[in-house]
What does this fold into?
Amino acid sequence: MQFKNPILGLCQQSTFMLSAAKVDQCPDDEGFEVAFAGRSNAGKSSALNTLTHASLARTSKTPGRTQLLNFFKLDDERRLVDLPGYGYAKVPIPLKMHWQRHLEAYLGGRESLKGLILMMDIRHPMTDFDLLMLDWAVAAGMPMHILLTKADKLTYGAAKNTLLKVQAEIRKGWGDAVTIQLFSAPKRMGLEDAYTVLAGWMELADKGAEVAE
It folds into this structure.
């Protein structure tokens, strides 16, 4: 027998819902949402697409292409949210300020937001943006789970060492509330751990079923 994660079927049937430039354009603030954040080009869209087995989030080699809050429906109560990427996106300063203002409003006032998935490129972890997100999540009491993306770019040993190093740094600075794992979209590494986190936040953890192998 093996355990079937209940979130898997929902992710596989996920559909695009809407894009919001402002918080008042978001769906009704009810149910369960998990938001995906990451510095520009950290592999956020690729991770979302791999977890949903679809091409919901647009990927691009040009950082900063995600300029809106993009909502994806799992069922009538549950949604995933692709947040704007930050970093070295080549966009006008006023637009960056717009993103920041509405992102902060969303993160600080969204009752249905149950957790935040933060993507860090394993080759460049703990950027200034990552530190800001860690500070905000811990201060707000918001659960956070980190995906060290692009783990396939390093040998397994090097990736594991980076994981342990970042994990120790986070525990020292932010405590044990933040969890972290290795992840690779092309190699489909770390999917099961990520699904387990999503299922817990969306209150599906106790609804799994055993299925015959």
